[in-house]
Write a structure and sequence with these properties.
This protein has 14 helices and ten strands. By secondary structure, the chain is α+β, with helices and mostly antiparallel strands. It folds into three domains: about 100 residues, no CATH class; about 130 residues, no CATH class; about 130 residues. Strand 1 and strand 2 form a beta hairpin.
């Protein structure tokens, strides 16, 4: 990105003085593109006029740096306000504000984020999953990572040596040695989710974490479809991010990784992935669920991704009530376009048209899905003590069948209205 032009810098500079001129208030909260920002430092508390000026400045930052985290934006505004308060209107103050802006420019870069994933084993070094990949660490990556761990420990020791007593040092030494040993044993066999993202370091982590949650929901769905077991029991229930290890690795343009903390790793069932399994999943069309993780997505793909997410929640739930609600919400994500539409009719007819091979099958499916929705409504409104297990299994089966049916066709529709038009034609005998 090019260095900020003088016009942009001057605009920020003038904005800062408008904030200062508005005068302080004890506490104010302003809603920005980055969410609720609480300006709780007394000298940065704003009157209503000052809040509007601060909102305008944050908006300038958001437009110039779409991949900037809210934390970095707030921090930059506070730095600039302190500079202006201290220096007043003069060239050195303007230059200092420009330096803060230039640092924000430099903070936006490409990152590779690796997050550990539990419940998966890889037979190949890398398996693509849409815009991301499942990978094993190379020997070089492991060595880089362990070096960074040692450097981090050294820095902590240097910073806290004077503050720690003998007992605390001994406990700390034990902790570090245990962590190093665990890492040496665990890292070679661990599977990581690799995301390539752009932003400052905080935003890169936020984007990767969001992608990881979506990926986990998608893989739970794949596992539920691929593995022949009760859809609410077994492998899917133990799959998730981290596997008990709280860690993420952020590689910045090939430099040293940044680290987070580690915890113990528990036992879990493992879902194996290699080129043979991949070929089967790809041929079945199930693996195309990971196309939904790419951005930008169409309105239809957003709805289908929501359906996968709710279905995944239903699959891993050990509570019949929660599972039934989640499965029916998955269907609603596809067949309900606007608030106030007749939901029961939408999902029962939608399932019937997409899944039924003839009139008799469609009538049977419509009747059964309607009954399942009635059970869900009774549960939601407190008129029922809970569904029977058969209802839960069937609701999950219908939701799964709809998602499997639509995944290979996700690029045919831009919006839910497009699907609705196809269903309407088919309902009355059209193509």
């Amino acid at each position: 990105m090019a260095a900020p032009d003088e016009r942009f810098v001057k605009s920020v500079y003038d904005n800062l003085f408008r904030i200062i001129a508005a005068g302080p208030s004890p506490l104010a909260t302003t809603s920005t593109r980055f969410g609720q920002v609480a300006w709780d430092l007394p000298r940065f508390g704003f009157t209503e006029t000052g809040t509007a000026a601060a909102d305008s400045l944050i908006d300038k930052f958001a437009k110039r740096w779409p991949n900037l985290s809210g934390y970095s934006a707030e921090n930059a505004v506070e730095q600039c306000l302190a500079i202006v308060e201290r220096g007043g209107k003069c060239d050195p103050t303007l230059d200092a504000v420009k330096a803060v802006i230039e640092r924000l420019d430099v903070s936006i870069r490409d990152y590779t984020v690796l997050l550990p994933v539990a419940g998966v084993s890889l037979g190949d070094p890398e398996i693509p999953a849409g815009p991301i990949a499942l990978v094993k660490l190379t020997d070089v990556d492991i060595q880089r990572f362990l070096t960074a761990v040692n450097d981090e420990e050294h820095a902590i020791r240097q910073a806290t040596q004077e503050a720690r007593g003998r007992l605390r040092v001994e406990i700390s030494d034990y902790y570090y040695e245990a962590r190093r040993r665990a890492l040496r044993d665990e890292l070679p066999s661990m599977v990581f989710l690799r995301c390539n993202v752009r932003g400052d370091a905080t935003r890169a982590w936020e984007l990767a974490e969001q992608t990881a949650r979506q990926f986990i929901d998608a893989l739970r769905f794949v596992m539920a479809v691929a593995l022949p077991h009760d859809p609410r029991v077994g492998h899917a229930a133990v799959f998730g991010e981290g596997g008990g290890i709280s860690m993420w690795i952020l590689f910045d343009d090939g430099t040293r990784p940044q680290l987070h903390s580690f915890l113990g790793r528990g036992s879990q069932l493992i879902f194996p992935l290699d080129h043979n399994v991949m070929a089967e999943l790809t041929e079945s069309g199930i693996w195309s669920v990971f196309d939904l993780l790419a951005v930008p997505r169409t309105q239809f793909q957003e709805a289908l991704l929501r359906a996968v997410r709710w279905l995944s929640k239903a699959v891993v739930s050990n509570d019949n009530n929660d599972a039934l609600l989640s499965a029916t919400i998955s269907l609603e994500s596809i067949f309900t376009r606007q608030p106030g539409e007749p939901v029961r009719q939408g999902i029962s007819e939608g399932c019937a048209v997409l899944l039924g091979a003839n009139v008799d099958e469609r009538l049977s499916i419509k009747r059964r899905v309607g009954q399942l929705y009635d059970s869900r409504s009774s549960l939601a409104h407190g008129r029922d003590h809970g569904p029977v297990r058969l209802d839960v299994v069937e609701a999950i089966a219908f939701a799964k069948a709809i998602v499997v049916k639509l995944l290979p066709r996700q690029h045919e529709f831009e919006a839910l209205d497009d699907l609705a038009k196809v269903l309407e034609r088919r309902k009355f005998g059209g193509g």
